[in-house]
Amino acid sequence: MILVTGGAGFIGANFVLDWLAQCDEPIVNLDKLTYAGNLQTLASLKGDTRHVFVRGDIGDRELLARLLAEHRPRALINFAAESHIDRSIHGPGDFIHTNVVGTFNLLESVRGYWSALPAAEKTAFRFLHVSTDEVYGSLGTDDAPFSETHRYEPNSPYSASKAASDHLVRAWHHTYGLPVLTTNCSNNYGPYHFPEKLIPLVILNALAGKELPIYGDGMQVRDWLYVKDHCSAICRVLAAGRLGETYNVGGWNEKPNIEVVRTLCAILDELSPRADGASYATQISFVTDRPGHDRRYAIDARKLEQELGWKPAETFETGIRKTVEWYLANQPWVENVSSGAYRDWVGSSTAEP
Ligand code: NAD
């Protein structure tokens, strides 16, 4: 049994689905179901006894103590977070509440559980914290990609709150010996991505005939990884990562935002052409840049590749095509999220979906 937090969000839900497709080890999935949590993503697990969904907050120590005592997980993977930079600029409070205070409470709950485990279970236990490359700040054009020893220079309320959580996780290892692992991953894309993020937003706006908004000059560089490759990296680190270590996760796919958007338009032109024959690229519009927008992120993933033998299965070209195909083939999921109808699931969601 493993316990996953935030498993109704984009990456967490992909992880839960992939995990249960590959093995029979059950998952307890603790998620608060904020606007970003969507049980519809997990609808295929309805009736599957290997998946126990619990609605709750990572900061609720009483709930955590009960779940840990009841299910006795051998590992906890922490995906739960407030994750959208723009939201963190307009309302940083939730980011501090969940990413900093929530992670602190989660660590304390897990420490209590772990320290009381019998010796063999105590040695085997793992706490894997999922984090982001944004904690490292911004790179100049000619700078080397972020390695695990790059200094932390977070620039947004989101990245600062994630940096704080990484530091807490590190300290709980050094101070209390909690067996932790941390992953810092580049930008993910793929199925079930909430449409406030660049790639799903562009696909959905393009198909709806709306403008495709690009911040500033569109030359901000991000390093992209297909979400299922991130999930496989997490499995690899969980299985073989060295305690207390950090592993950067990335696919060596640096792309300026404008290139990502043009690629999406070209794939859509091919797979779902506009009725008037024009390219979706004609819908691109440049909008005022985000305040403090980091210019470039790039991940050096050699430690994970060389030490743990992980490799991504997708290139950017294959992953982005799969993603567009997924959005075209899954319109009911998309319409449900776009209309907000997925919120209707939440009322009755203290049990499994
Ligand atoms: P997401 O916003 O899609 O999902 C977050 C999930 O956490 C949601 O289901 C939400 O309901 C849940 N949640 C939020 N607050 C909670 C709380 N207090 N208690 C319990 N559950 C809570 O995020 P995501 O994109 O899936 O990211 C998952 C993790 O991966 C985050 O920690 C994020 O920082 C990290 N990460 C994301 C990316 C990316 O490109 N999306 C890249 C690298 C790292």
UniProtKB/TrEMBL annotation:
Pfam family, one: GDP_Man_Dehyd
Gene3D superfamilies: NAD(P)-binding Rossmann-like Domain, UDP-galactose 4-epimerase, domain 1
GO biological process, one term: nucleotide-sugar metabolic process
The keyword Lyase belongs to this UniProt entry's keyword annotation: yes
Location of the NAD(P)-binding domain: 3-323
Xref: InterPro entries: dTDP_Gluc_deHydtase, NAD(P)-bd_dom, NAD(P)-bd_dom_sf, Sc_DH/Rdtase_CS
Name of the top EC class for this enzyme: lyase
Gene Ontology MF annotations: dTDP-glucose 4,6-dehydratase activity
Catalytic reaction(s) noted: dTDP-alpha-D-glucose = dTDP-4-dehydro-6-deoxy-alpha-D-glucose + H2O
Family: Belongs to the NAD(P)-dependent epimerase/dehydratase family. dTDP-glucose dehydratase subfamily.
Protein's UniProt name: dTDP-glucose 4,6-dehydratase
